[in-house]
């Protein structure tokens, strides 16, 4: 009788070295240049993304299916987010926001769609965006680019962002530390949101997958234990439903990340008018 | 009570922060639906704000989830 494998929902997020590379210390920080499953997934994501846009980016008046798909992705960033939220002054920043959107979207979708599981003694599915290091890098890059853009565009006047208007000098000075904390917690929430969503969804899917195997094997022992086939089948149904939900979450989180980046950018670009 | 049991109980308790996120999402989508039924023509224009609000509300629940994971798998375990 086969024994059910242990239930280890966090195992899928472990990083394995595939091709060892050079490692060195620089300023007390250890750098390891090995090709891990995380690096390989990111390279695969970059190739998929570049191939997609190389195949679909054509400027025809009547688009074919691929061009229509690429254009509607672009319109999510342009017509749904940047133009209504920032206005015409937001146009120069669309390339960065669209890059961010497509990178997060591809990496999220790869985690859901390219789940091959264990083959040849190696785990082939890996969700890059379920690593806090990756999402934190994206969040810190986005947040601090926007923050320094504020100083470049407005100079020291930009510090006025931390002093709420209409409160008088004393009130605004008292509020400034609180405003600063709520401002600088943004990259943390930005990173944590993407990380938590992708991690949580995959943990739940993995748990239900383990239930299918464990309960199915239990049912095979015969007797009254055969009834375990019912919860096993229900768990399988849950995986199907959760896969659909995860697809929605993958697209939604890419959208939300860029939407929040757009809102933060709006404060910088339209600083001084409006609020 | 040994330390491992206390850790598991703590991780379970930490997820109770998700109650607030659940209530918040219910309020958010409920109110959106109510407003959308009253004025369906304005509903589509507010969908971006709906998703932004959802993201901000959901973060609170995810914080509870991450704290629970830190208790289970984090440093000092």
Description of the structure:
The complex is a heterodimer of chains A (275) and B (77). Chain A has 275 residues and is mainly α. Chain A has one domain (33-269). Helices cover 64% and strands 6% of the residues of chain A. Chain A has seven helices and six strands; from the N terminus they run ββββαααββαααα. Chain A has helices at 37-56, 65-85, 94-113, 132-154, 168-184, 186-219, 229-269, and strands spanning 17-19, 23-26, 29-32, 35-36, 118-119, 122-123. In chain A, the strands form three sheets. In chain A, strands 1-4 form a two-stranded antiparallel ribbon. Chain A has a two-stranded antiparallel ribbon with strand order 2-3. In chain A, strands 5-6 form a two-stranded antiparallel sheet. In chain A, strand 2 and strand 3 (29-32) form a beta hairpin. In chain A, helix 1 (37-56) crosses helix 3 and helix 4 (132-154) packs antiparallel against helix 6. The mean pLDDT of chain A is 86. By secondary structure, chain B is an all-alpha fold. Chain B has one domain: Up-down Bundle (F1FO ATP Synthase), CATH 1.20.20.10. In chain B, helix 2 (18-38) runs antiparallel to helix 4. Chain B is elongated, with a radius of gyration of 18 Å. At the A-B interface, helix 2, helix 6 and helix 7 of A face helix 4 of B.
In percent terms, what proportion of residues of chain A is strand? 5-15%
CATH class of chain B: Mainly Alpha
**In total, how many beta strands of chain A?**
6
The biggest beta sheet of chain B reads: none
Helix content of chain A: 55-70%
Extended strand count of chain B: 0
Structural class of chain A: mainly alpha
Tell me which CATH architecture of chain B applies here.
Up-down Bundle
Tally the helices of chain B. Answer: 4
Strand order of the largest sheet of chain A: 1-4
Our measurement of the CA-to-CA distance between the termini of chain A, rounded to an integer number of angstroms, reads 69 Å
Number of helices of chain A: 7
């Amino acid at each position: 009788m086969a024994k059910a494998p242990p239930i280890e929902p966090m195992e899928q997020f472990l990083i394995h070295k595939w091709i060892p590379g050079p490692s060195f210390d620089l300023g007390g920080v250890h750098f390891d240049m090995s090709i891990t499953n995380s690096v390989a997934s990111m390279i695969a994501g970059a190739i998929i993304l570049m191939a997609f846009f190389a195949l679909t980016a054509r400027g025809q008046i009547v688009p074919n299916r691929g061009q229509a798909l690429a254009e509607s992705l672009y319109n999510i960033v342009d017509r749904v987010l940047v133009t209504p939220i920032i206005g015409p002054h937001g146009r120069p920043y669309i390339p960065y926001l669209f890059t961010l959107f497509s990178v997060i979207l591809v990496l999220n979708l790869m985690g859901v769609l390219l789940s091959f599981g264990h083959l040849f003694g190696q785990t082939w599915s890996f969700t890059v965006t379920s690593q806090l290091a990756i999402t934190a890098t994206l969040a810190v890059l986005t947040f601090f680019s926007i923050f320094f853009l504020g100083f470049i565009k407005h100079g020291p006047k930009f510090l006025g962002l931390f002093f709420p208007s209409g409160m008088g000098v004393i009130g605004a000075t008292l509020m400034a530390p609180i405003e600063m904390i709520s401002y600088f917690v943004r990259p943390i929430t930005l990173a944590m949101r993407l990380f938590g969503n992708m991690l949580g969804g995959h943990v739940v899917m993995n748990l239900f997958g383990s239930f299918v195997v464990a309960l199915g094997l239990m049912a095979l022992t015969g007797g009254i234990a055969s009834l375990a086939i019912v919860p096993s089948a229900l768990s399988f149904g849950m995986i199907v439903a959760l896969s659909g939900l995860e697809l929605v979450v993958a697209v939604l989180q890419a959208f939300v990340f860029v939407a929040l980046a757009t809102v933060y950018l709006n404060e910088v670009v339209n600083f001084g008018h409006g609020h | 009570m040994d330390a491992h049991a206390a850790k598991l109980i703590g991780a379970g308790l930490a997820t109770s922060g998700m109650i607030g996120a659940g209530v918040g999402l219910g309020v958010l989508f409920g109110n959106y639906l109510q407003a959308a039924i009253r004025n369906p023509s304005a509903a589509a224009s507010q969908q971006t704000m709906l998703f932004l609000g959802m993201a901000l509300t959901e973060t609170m629940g995810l914080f509870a989830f991450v704290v629970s994971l830190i208790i289970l798998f984090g440093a000092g375990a």
